[in-house]
Amino acid sequence: MSLNGRTAIITGASRGLGAVIADHFLSEGANVTLCGRNAGDLAAQHARLAAAYGADRVWAKPADVSSRSDVDALFDEALSRFGRLDILVNNAGVYGPMGSIEAVDWDEWVQAIAINLTGTVYCARKAVTVFKPQRYGKIVMLSGGGATSPLPGISAYAASKAGIVRLTETLALETREWNIDVNAIAPGTLMTRLTDQLIAAGPERVGASLHARMVKLKQEGGTPLTLGAALCSYLASAESDGLTGRLIAAPWDPWPFSEEHRREIAESDIYTLRRVVPRIADGLGGDR
């Protein structure tokens, strides 16, 4: 029960990874507010979790994270219901339009940025205003392969997910003195409705390589959703206190980290986005 007594808001929790994160948090003792754009899916998820864990521990609020008024209402009502907030999981996200940059619908491209990046920033902003007075809090961002590799054909997704990682690193430094930990996770290659969308788009729009990879994933199965949910739980718990400003991969990185390993991480650039530079002779007897 590593989250016993803690309260969380999880965005994009009506299905897929967000729903599994909510289930995992409740099983670890947290009280949870779910949000999602699809009111029907959200109501079904709320009913399932309330039946399993008790109606007093889980609440749902339809909200679109790209709408400031929706997010304001979400936080106000969650705080009113549970009296406190300790954790924000920024999970809501879309792939956005698929195809070459000159061919995709521009409004859809901008809307994907509004959901994946701007909406995430605004949710984090709201959480920080709650966490600073209590001098503690946990923010977990969902990033992924879009942050670390080019993804031709889904440029809005790639750009927004890279932005999420730099936001994570920056916000971690801004809030460190208030004991607010901000981390991003790469949950692995997941079998969700987003994967089905990539396959349906076809190789002409998302590229032959990515499409073939998604088809293979569909045939073989991907990273279990429970693995990403467990990493979110670890980063939301006291066990990870002080670990901040990192992008951690659920299927590949050796978490949970020991206290000694956390100190090593804090003193290095591991699990961050950095530019790789060549070794250039500086004319002073050394390389840089």
Task: Describe the strand arrangement of the main beta sheet, using strand numbers.
Answer: 3-2-1-4-5-6-7
Instruction: Give the quaternary arrangement of the chains.
Output: single chain
Number of separate strands:
7
| Percentage beta strand | 5-15%
Q: How much helicity do the residues have?
A: 40-55%
Instruction: Give unreliable regions as ranges.
Output: none
Count of DSSP-assigned helices: 10
| SSE-based structural type | alpha/beta
Mean pLDDT: 90
Apparent shape: globular
N- to C-terminal distance: 48 Å
For the report, how would you describe the main beta sheet?
7 strands, parallel
Q: What is the H/E order?
A: EHEHEHEHEHEHHHHEH
Radius of gyration: 19 Å
